[in-house]
């Protein structure tokens, strides 16, 4: 059954326990448990006879996932997916775990045994079980509370930033970048924190180290096997220290955040290398994760059939190469290279390809990658060129031709499964990626792609009558957009990531309609999720009887937590509206998370970064000018070319009846100096002297 009334009623009526399995479409072990246990006839009979079985996609229902994951982590010390939880008919959890093999082994009890034992307990000790589940629930409520105590104020930004920098610096891998030995995740939140830390400490050794850590990590990731050198985009994480052998699924939220982070790296360093990686990610998303109508799909799976004739899927089959395949595809002799060199020789040398495969057996427990190669850039262009006696420019063209041929060969392979559900929150992250890259790289078509996606969200995942967002929609027959029978209402993260996206899109396009919608959504978010007693926002709204707990997120992980991003959103919203109560709310969130921010800010780098914006107050960068004028465009190019984290950009176009002038009366007093486009830097609605030279504005920023 899906999570819903029908299943709950059945459990109560038949007095049965509920077995809940939570997973997601690109989860490898979810598929394994499905094949081994759920499709096994005898185990299936035990499940149906004794339990009401419910399956949940955690990407559709993060609220249900969070409640029971909190329970599994608290009671077993670990967590993950597939998550297996047994609940009483009134939905209280009493035992849980993750993956279970079907039968008992030396170290693990099998799923069949667990099912039979639990069914037995329910028959024999029902009252004790119910009493115990009530105690567990009370303990969870107490444990998961995040709130401001008494008159707590926001923690001091300087200390929070310094501690977070120190904790990241201590866990940094000097050789390969990243912040753990293995597995290694991209975690853009860490890199964005380091960029902001650098911007505030440019002249200190710590500032220089922060920048070096971030840029080195981004370079190593881009060279690594976690980056798909043939079909673009990034895989979810690396299983080793070197960013080499990944888990091959590709998630939308990674592409969105990484496109923005690589664009920032380009703004700061001016190095085209980073701009190229950002373009590469967006090319992948435009080609493989885009709905014709404008939305973005959620993910591509890691597992696929190696050939059209294969009976079973293998991890990474779509992405890996045998040496002989590459030799056969690239047999051409290379002009000007040492005698007898083929394009295959050059390509294999540069991308670390070995005849016997380049994946260590340690990283391949199921021997799915035996004899195969995951491409990883092993040398600089200069080194590879020197090795074969070529010019670097000539080598670049050769490698590009090699990549083109491998892409054509790969296109003949069976593709991995595409998860075509469209999630509001992840689409928000992706819109930010396109908008920020479009602004930083000065590429208008990227901004237009962001606007198409925002228009898609407004049409398909927003109800103008109630002013509320929906969580998801789906690709139906003939590519039509479909909604589920009972649409899922938007969660906190849907509001937060879309509001952030709309601010980013406004700054890139200066279309005021996006601002107006962002501020509307911010009011709705306050109404649905704000905790007036303990401060901060709950992840889900009140009033759903099937949710035992209303939780607040407390970690910036693969995605930033909604409360972290919302601090900056609130400060931006105040800049565009003059509503100072939003600044107050931002401070109250920081107060609620104060203890965590002071002790372990490394778990909340995005919120730590926001403490600086709160402390320094956002600067309003106002450009007065004609949107079509060349002088205005030059001013805007300057603003977009500088990485300046604590600012809100706005265009005062002189239209007194427009949305911004109605929101911010002070704009009427700012004028164009000598009829030229003029910039003002304002803080708390008090402005600097007018500036008409783009160079001078760049310097001020």
Helical fraction equals 40-55%
Q: Order of strands side by side in the largest beta sheet?
A: 2-1-3-4
Using the alpha-carbon principal axes, give the shape.
Answer: globular
Helical segment count:
26
Low-confidence stretches: none
Question: What integer is the average pLDDT?
Answer: 95
**Sheet/helix structural class:** alpha+beta
Rg, Cα atoms, Å: 27 Å
Total beta strands: 20
User: What profile does the largest beta sheet have?
Assistant: 4 strands, mixed
Second CATH tier, the architecture of the domain at 5-144: 3-Layer(aba) Sandwich
The CATH topology of the domain at 5-144 turns out to be Glutaredoxin
CA-CA gap between termini:
56 Å
CATH class of the domain at 5-144: Alpha Beta
Strand content: 5-15%
Q: What would CATH call the homologous superfamily of the domain at 5-144? A: Glutaredoxin
Organism: Tauraco erythrolophus
Domain Spermatogenesis-associated protein 20-like TRX: 1-140
Protein name: Spermatogenesis-associated protein 20
Pfam families: Thioredox_DsbH
Protein architecture, described:
Among the domains are: 5-144, Glutaredoxin (3-Layer(aba) Sandwich), CATH 3.40.30; 174-290, no CATH class; 319-412, no CATH class; 617-700, Glutaredoxin (3-Layer(aba) Sandwich), CATH 3.40.30.10. It is 49% helix and 10% strand. The strands form seven sheets. Strands 2-1-3-4 form a four-stranded mixed beta sheet, sandwiched between helices. Strand 3 (83-87) and strand 4 form a beta hairpin. The chain is α+β, with helices and mostly antiparallel strands. The chain is built from 26 helices and 20 strands. The model has no long low-confidence stretch (mean pLDDT 95). The protein is globular. Helix 8 (188-200) packs parallel to helix 23.
């Amino acid at each position: 059954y899906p999570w819903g009334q029908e299943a709950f009623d059945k459990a109560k009526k038949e007095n049965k326990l509920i077995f809940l399995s939570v997973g997601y479409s690109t989860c490898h072990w979810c598929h394994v448990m499905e094949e081994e246990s759920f499709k096994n006839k005898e185990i299936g009979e035990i499940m149906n006879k004794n339990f009401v079985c419910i399956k949940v996609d955690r990407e559709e229902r993060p609220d249900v996932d969070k409640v029971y994951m909190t329970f599994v982590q608290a009671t077993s010390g670990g967590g993950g997916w597939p998550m297996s939880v047994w609940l009483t008919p009134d939905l209280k959890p009493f035992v849980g775990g993750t993956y279970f093999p079907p039968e008992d082994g030396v170290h693990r009890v099998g799923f069949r045994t667990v099912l039979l034992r639990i069914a037995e307990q329910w028959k024999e000790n029902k009252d004790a079980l119910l009493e115990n589940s009530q105690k567990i629930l009370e303990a969870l409520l107490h444990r998961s509370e995040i709130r401001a105590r008494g008159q707590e104020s926001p923690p001091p930004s300087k200390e929070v930033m310094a501690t977070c920098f120190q904790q990241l610096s201590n866990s940094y891998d000097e050789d390969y970048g990243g912040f753990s030995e293995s597995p290694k995740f991209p975690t853009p939140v860490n890199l964005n924190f380091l960029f902001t830390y650098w911007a505030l400490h440019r002249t200190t050794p710590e500032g220089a180290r922060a920048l070096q850590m971030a840029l080195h990590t981004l370079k190593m990731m881009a060279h690594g096997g976690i980056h798909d050198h043939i079909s673009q985009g990034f895989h979810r994480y690396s299983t080793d220290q070197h960013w080499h052998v990944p888990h091959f699924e590709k998630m939308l939220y990674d592409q969105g955040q990484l496109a923005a982070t690589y664009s920032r790296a380009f703004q700061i360093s001016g190095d085209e290398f980073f701009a190229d990686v950002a373009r590469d990610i967006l090319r992948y998303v435009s080609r493989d994760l885009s709905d014709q109508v404008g939305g973005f799909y959620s993910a591509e799976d890691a597992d696929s059939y190696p050939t059209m004739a294969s009976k079973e899927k293998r991890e990474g089959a779509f992405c890996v190469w045998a040496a002989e395949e590459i030799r056969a595809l690239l047999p051409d002799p290379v002009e000007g290279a040492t005698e007898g060199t083929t394009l295959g020789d050059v390509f294999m040398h540069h991308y670390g390809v070995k005849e016997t495969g380049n994946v260590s057996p340690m990283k391949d427990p199921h021997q799915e990658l035996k004899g195969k190669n995951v491409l990883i850039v092993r040398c600089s262009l200069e080194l590879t060129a020197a090795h074969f006696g070529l010019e670097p420019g000539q080598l670049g063209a050769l490698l590009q031709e090699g990549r083109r041929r491998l892409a054509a060969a790969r296109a003949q392979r069976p593709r991995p499964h595409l998860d075509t559900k469209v999630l509001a929150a992840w689409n928000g992250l992706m819109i930010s990626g396109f908008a920020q890259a479009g602004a930083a790289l000065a590429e208008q078509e990227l901004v237009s792609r962001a606007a198409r996606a925002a228009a898609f969200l407004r049409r398909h995942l927003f109800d103008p009558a109630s002013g509320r967002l929906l969580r998801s929609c789906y690709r139906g027959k003939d590519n039509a957009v479909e909604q589920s029978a009972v649409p899922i209402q938007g969660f906190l993260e849907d509001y937060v990531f879309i509001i952030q996206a709309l601010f980013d899109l406004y700054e890139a396009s200066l279309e005021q309609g996006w601002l107006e919608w962002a501020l509307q959504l911010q009011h709705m978010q306050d109404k649905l999720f704000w905790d007036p007693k303990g401060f901060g926002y709950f992840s889900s709204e009140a009033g759903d009887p099937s949710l035992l707990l209303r939780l607040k997120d407390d970690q910036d992980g693969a995605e930033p937590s909604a409360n972290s991003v919302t601090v900056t959103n609130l400060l931006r919203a105040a800049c565009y509206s003059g509503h100072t109560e939003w600044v107050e709310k931002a401070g109250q969130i920081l107060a609620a998370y104060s203890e965590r921010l002071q002790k372990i800010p490394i778990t909340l780098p995005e919120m730590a970064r926001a403490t600086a914006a709160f402390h320094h107050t956002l600067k309003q960068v106002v450009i007065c000018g004609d949107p079509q004028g060349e002088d205005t465009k030059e001013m805007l190019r300057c603003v977009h070319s500088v990485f300046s984290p604590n600012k809100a950009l706005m265009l005062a176009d002189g239209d007194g009846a427009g949305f911004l002038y109605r929101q911010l009366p002070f704009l009427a007093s700012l004028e164009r100096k000598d009829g030229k486009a003029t910039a003002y830097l304002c803080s708390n609605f008090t402005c600097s002297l007018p500036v008409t030279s783009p160079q001078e504005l760049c310097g001020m920023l």
